[in-house]
Design goal:
mainly beta, four-stranded antiparallel β-sheet, 42% strand, 359 residues
């Protein structure tokens, strides 16, 4: 028992645990199967694994004994007749994000999917219902589109720990949306963002956040690593400020300190055409002043002939410890706020998600 790190990969689900100065790893299951994201529901002491079996489609499994055994449950499904756009049937193509409500809704959880649908369960994941208010947004058929996927997809879900009816979701490509009434209505939260690939870069819909996170200490403080830069908001997403510079710009992963809203980390890469480490050297950048300045930290990370990058979900932080995984199966850890790094392993499958969990 203690603090673990769940690692979803292209070939299974692993758990890491720090042992003195080193790390131990254990395969929890699904050897050979892509685990698109793994999450831990501390309310019910349940590990969840979202799977993409390719030919067999999306699967959803849970373990109530910390990975010793697994139970497959029905994954979210679109009703027959629903269409992504005219002539294109809506089917579940990817389970890409998951979040759990607070103590005021102890059995409620959400899954974000491709093609842009948000599903809600009020019975602990036994059944799922499409949040129709978001799906029926009038902009969805014409202004939402795929960003790296064939269709729009929800990769970020943030639930207010003090009010589970207050939720943010983010979509590639559409942007960030907020509801204050449990999903009955939604407001676009893209002011200040730019999408240089659109005819109108400042369009209110069609922005491409790669990942959006909020401070656990102050939900007003939000961060996003965007296709077109790194952005910060101090008013719960109503307005965004570009905090990019020559150290940070393009990338996917972003994390915010659990105790200091001013502190955040990103893992930069060369912009969209290449998606590799900058100048063949991997680094993690940190800000301690809400994005006014950034410092790149490289100690312990490969600095020559490196073509690695971290995608959206494989970075997490717990107190001063950070762990991230890469597209080529390298996993790195830091115990000093990201200033110095150690290699956990170089032979994991490509890493899709990383999350700290305590059990």
């Amino acid at each position: 028992m203690g603090e673990h790190v769940l690692v979803g990969t292209r070939k299974g689900l692993f758990a890491l645990q720090q042992n003195g100065s080193g790390w131990e790893s254990e395969l929890l299951g699904f050897l050979g199967a892509p685990v698109t994201i793994a999450k831990y529901d501390a309310r019910h002491k349940t590990i969840w694994a979202c799977l993409d079996h390719g030919h067999w489609g999306c699967k959803l499994s849970r373990s109530r004994d910390f990975g010793k055994t697994w139970e497959e449950v029905d994954a979210p499904k679109y009703d027959e007749g629903l269409e992504i756009k005219p002539g294109v049937p809506a089917t579940t193509r990817l389970l890409w994000s998951m979040a759990f409500a607070g103590d005021d809704q102890p059995n409620t959880m959400y899954i974000g999917t491709e093609p842009g649908g948000l599903f809600r369960s009020d019975d602990g994941g036994d059944s799922w219902q499409l949040v129709e208010s978001l799906w029926n947004d009038p902009d969805r058929p014409d202004k939402w589109f795929g960003g790296g996927r064939d269709h729009p997809a929800i990769h970020s879900i943030i639930i207010d720990p003090d009010d589970s009816n207050h939720i943010f979701i983010s979509i590639s490509c559409a942007g960030t949306y907020e509801t204050a009434d449990g999903g009955k209505s939604w407001e676009v939260r893209n002011n200040g963002l730019r999408a240089d690939f659109l005819p109108d870069p400042a369009s209110s819909v069609g922005q491409d956040p790669h990942l959006v996170v909020a401070s656990p200490q102050n939900l007003d403080i939000m961060w996003q690593q965007n296709h077109c830069g790194v952005y910060q908001s101090s008013d719960a997403g109503k307005n965004w400020t570009d905090v990019s510079n020559d150290v940070v710009h393009f990338g996917f992963a972003v994390a915010v300190s659990p105790s200091d809203p001013n502190r955040a980390w990103v893992i930069p890469g060369i912009s969209d055409e290449c998606r590799t480490a900058i100048d063949g050297a991997l680094y993690v950048a940190r800000t301690d002043d809400m994005g006014k300045t950034w410092t790149d930290y490289r100690a312990g990370l490969p600095q020559e002939n490196c073509y690695d990058i971290a995608y959206r979900h494989p970075l997490d932080v717990s107190e001063k410890t950070l762990v991230f995984g890469t597209t080529t199966g390298n996993i790195f850890a830091s115990n000093d706020d990201g200033e110095n790094w150690a290699t956990v392993g170089n032979s994991f499958p490509p890493v899709y998600s990383v999350e700290f969990a305590t059990w």
